[in-house]
Fold these 2 entries.
Entry 1:
Amino acid sequence: MWFGIGFVTLAASVGWRWYSERTRWQGTSEKCNGLPYQYKYRSEKYSDKLWIGVDFNAQINCAFRKENWLDQGFKALRLTKEHQTGHREFDQQVYFLSDNPFVQNLVSTNPDIAENVLRIMASDIHGARFTALYGRNGCLWAEYKLKGELRAEKGTPGIASLCVPALQLIANAFQQAKPQTNNAWRDPYYWIATIFSVLASGLLINGCLQLFRWLETSNTHLLPHSNILQHTFGITVACTSLVIGVAAIMLSRTSRAHVTLIELLLAGGFGMFSTTYYGLKDINCQLDTQPVITLTSEVADQRIYKRRPSSTPLYFLTIKATDETPQIEIEVNPSSHSMARKGSQIKLKLHPGKLGYRWITDVQVAAP
């Protein structure tokens, strides 16, 4: 089952990423001083996101954002290489994401592009913060995070008046080069980074699904002091290091290297750990065909726990140690918890485990 879930989540990640990379987003059409543009909102818990975009050369794929300390650190370590355009202010403030020589040369030789990218980056107004500028799939768009009074759509005209003219000038500069671009959007490093990003996303989604699936399975409990965490950690470190090493080699000295490596380390690492842990747990429990031992013990303690005052309570029993098992606290259903008292007799089944991780199941509290 765990293999099937992993395959489905990876296939879904690939499909969604392929669709999103080849599909232009659609929004509401408006005009700013006669210049057409589109905008789109996405509501989030703590802030809204706003996209404002114009038509763009469909053969171009690039991005611009404010340079941060991570960018500078990875460049100092020579793990990342950002193209320097020769425009001092632009090179100091902007992180330019493109490894396509044609796009790099166009930005370097056309001062209007650098000037208007800086103008868009400075288009923050109260309650709106610029995050990035993207050119892809025939659209050039600026992305903003909105808070406070600009969370409503009334903030769009003010932001559009600041960024749409600059967006149109950048788009015109790239559009004039259209006859020369041919397949310039086919930046191989972009697609290599995308493949590793999809892998990290697939691992993360699969890891979360495995976690929630096992949270719903409260009748199976591994005994403490098994080696499953050590084995999981070892496999995770080995596999994640291998993937990161391959990514570092394939993306060596490119503008997207550190972004991809961080995603693989955080999202991919967590997903790998969770996927490995619950995969080992599945193999250990579901494929275990060895003889079962029935044990009798007593309830040492019991408690009820709520994550939040409004959340559903969780019920736990502490079972005294036996000759075969240490003292262990397990989650039980409400009826078993209500029947139990300190000293109540309790029966359980001990399984050796396919991989040697001993586990218990069928915990039954004797009626008082």
Note: The mean pLDDT is 84.
Entry 2:
Amino acid sequence: MSIKQEINRTESNLVDELDKLIIPCPICNRMYHRVAAHAQAKHGISIQEFKETFHYTTATQACAYRLLRLYGGRSDIYIEQIYKGHGLSGYITIDGNAPETPVWNSFLGTRKAVTHLRGGRTFGVLFRDYYTRVLVFDFDFYPGTPISNQQLYVERIFDPLYKLQIPRRCIHVLKSGLKGFHVDLYFDKFMPTQVLLTFARHIVKKAGLDGLEPCVKVELRPENPIGGRGVRLPLGVHIATGERMMYYVPPLGGVGGGSNSQFKPAPNQFHYLLYQTKQISRDDFFKYTYPKVIQQEKFIRKQEQIERQLSVSIPTFTPCKGNDNITHPYPSYPPPAPPKRGEGNKNQLSSVGRRHYTREELDDF
């Protein structure tokens, strides 16, 4: 089965997969779809009490709650993707605090996330000020770039992350559905946005992904500690193309080994969302990763300072006579003739460190 056929099969099965998804009951570990109804029948816990404790009642709501918790965005202000016509899409910002916003549309919660997962509407989150729980590397490629080339660029970012103690299980790759890929890093607690931006820019520089426009452009989300653009939530349908934003599994041996080493969609998207979206520990990040970033950045700045101090100014060359388009390394052309024998500087030393004596001086001896 080709990669394209596998993508189409996975997309067509997503809604059925969501309806048939079963998860363990948090009390007895038996697998059910309607977990809260089982808990009420077997354990005497009301559905309302179960929902207040675990924030979901069904496996579908569990996926929605997990999705919103991973991204940790604002719930009162969010974005929605809309179709503009002629194959183009855009985003509108919905402000739940605005008086003209209907009550039913003023909050990005589990119900809207379920609609997003089913493909009815496509939502995205806006980030909180100064803190975030996700860092997104957004790869946008030039139209027509082969998928194999896109994957090679995406794979560049893995090695710098590995060297900074970011485990492979915490690096999540998604196909955006239009222009490229997303590489997401999830954190178990809120992180200072400025710290993650410093870390992300260091990674992009180490991976050699800066300054490659228009072939590939890597943008960061969040892009600023305050404000900035949002990011579309995974597993939703791209309004313009109809493709799902799915999780992909990079091969362990890299993507440079032919068709068998290409990125492939995760076999079970919602199982991946619930159980394989591993998060980076904030304590480990500040203990092992961020000190290395600071140390390497200081070293890079020191090297740049030394290079600036040791830089030699390039001499200005004057044009050759008779041809203004040719330059010559001498201030005048033709170059001056070498001095005749015996007319050199008397104080000049020879190659063995002795003076050059004139004939008259030698006769005096």
Note: Residues 255-259, 349-353 have pLDDT under 50 and may be disordered.
